[in-house]
Amino acid sequence: MKFIKEFKGVRDGEIYPETFQPGEECPPELVDAALSLEVLEVPKLVEPKKKDK
Asked: Which end of the chain is flanked by fewer CB atoms within 10 Å, N or C?
């Protein structure tokens, strides 16, 4: 998932925050936090087309 807004977070094993810019890939360990702040692109679910009879 990619960021759509600027986000500041700390990667696993690091002690200092890093600023992530829009378009950058989100590290897996930060996905939950970024989703809760609505700074990640969320893929839209495509509904299956209904077959006409």
From this structure: C
Residue where the block lists tokens 């969320």: 42
Q: Three-class SS of residue 29?
A: helix
User: Are 35 and 4 in contact, with CB atoms under 8 Å apart?
Assistant: no
Contact assessment for residue 20 and residue 29, using Cβ atoms and an 8 Å cutoff: no
**Is the pTM for the entire model greater than 0.85?**
no
Do 2 and 39 touch, CB atoms closer than 8 A? no
- The secondary structure element, H or E, covering residue 32 is helix 31-36
**CA dihedral defined by 30, 36, 38, 43, rounded to 10 degrees?**
80
- List, for residues 1-14, the tens digit of each pLDDT value: 999 999 999 999 99
